[in-house]
TrEMBL record:
Coiled coil start-end: none
Protein name per UniProt: TetR/AcrR family transcriptional regulator
GO terms, molecular function: DNA-binding transcription factor activity; transcription cis-regulatory region binding
UniProtKB keywords: DNA-binding, Transcription, Transcription regulation
Amino acid sequence: MGEKRTRKRMPRAVREQQMLDAAVRIFGQRGYRAASMDEIAELAGVSKPLVYLYLNSKEDLFSACIRREAAALVAAVRDGVGAAEGTSADRQLWDGLRAFFTHTAERPDGWAVLHSQARTQGEPFAALVTAMREEMLAYVTSLIAAAASEAHGDPAPSQRQVAGLAQALVGAAESLADWANRDDSVSAKEAATTLMNFAWAGLGGLVEGRAPTAPGATPGNR
C-alpha cells in the first residue's frame, strides 16, 4: 500500500524519465525488435499498462528515447564548446570533440540507440536521427569555418571545402565513438585527440603552417 501511494505521488515527468531510462537501456542492449515492453516496464519498476498510458506504444516510446538522447548529445557538445568561449576556434573545436566522446562513453546505451538502432529501423526513426545529425553537421561546419578562417586569414576556405571536412569529421566521430565504446582502453581524450589530428590533417591544405595536433592533447583516461 505504501509503495502504491509513493508511486501515485511521484510527478509524471519523473516517472516518465524512469521509463525512458529503462527503455534506452533495453533498446540499446537488445535492439528495437528484440526489446519487449514487459522488460522495459519491469526495469522501470512500473506496470506495462502504465508504460502504455504514458507513452502510447513501443514505437512512440522508441521515438521518445531517440529525441531525448539526440537532444542530450547535442547539448553536451554545445556545452563543451561553450565552456571554451573566448578561446581560439580550434580550442573550441577540441573541447566540443572531447565533450562528444565523453558523453557517448558515459551513455553507451543512448549512443547505441542513436547510431546502431534508430538508423537501421527505417522511418520514422531514421528521420529523427537525420535531423539530429544535420544539426550537428551545421554546428561543426561553423566551428571548422571559424578555425580555418582564424588560422588562415583571407581568403577564407570555400564553403564547399569546409562542408566536406565537416562531413568527414562527423562521420569519423561516429565511427570512433563505436570503437571507443567497444574497447575500454580507449579514453574519451584519446578518441578526441585522434579526431582532432585528423581534422588538422584535413585542414592542412586550407591552413598553411599549422601543425596537425590537438591543443594540449595527449592520450589519457576518461
